[in-house]
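Milestone M4 deliverable, item 7.
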Amino acid sequence: MANSEYLQLDVVTPQGSVLSSRVDSVQAPSVHGEFGVLPNHLPLLAALKCGLLVWEVEGKRKTAAIGPGFVEGGPDKVLLLTDLFASPEDIKPDAVREELAKAEEALKAYDELYEGPDYNELQRDIDWAQARLEAYAASRAV
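Output delivered:
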């Protein structure tokens, strides 16, 4: 295995490539918890959930919101295939807060014992809204 100083980070959505960058490290949310990748990482494959994607470029922390999908990584690359991606500059927090409130209100209508397709979709909408708000807040905290 060759030693690598950097990782090639690529994020692809159904609309195409949304991010391609040489990075120092990557952190992402999987269905089993947060994980990090540094250069020379062993191969990995994981399922992603909505959450905060964090990467460092020359010591500068960058963030974005990602949706569900998959990640494949190795010693010199990380490829994320995700349904959703939002960079902080594209996030309008007031509109997202409104979406979040509507989804949370609709979710209250469900019996706590019932989880159907609509319930799961509403929960995903809530998770996606929270991920975008987290990415927006993280970008402002620098």
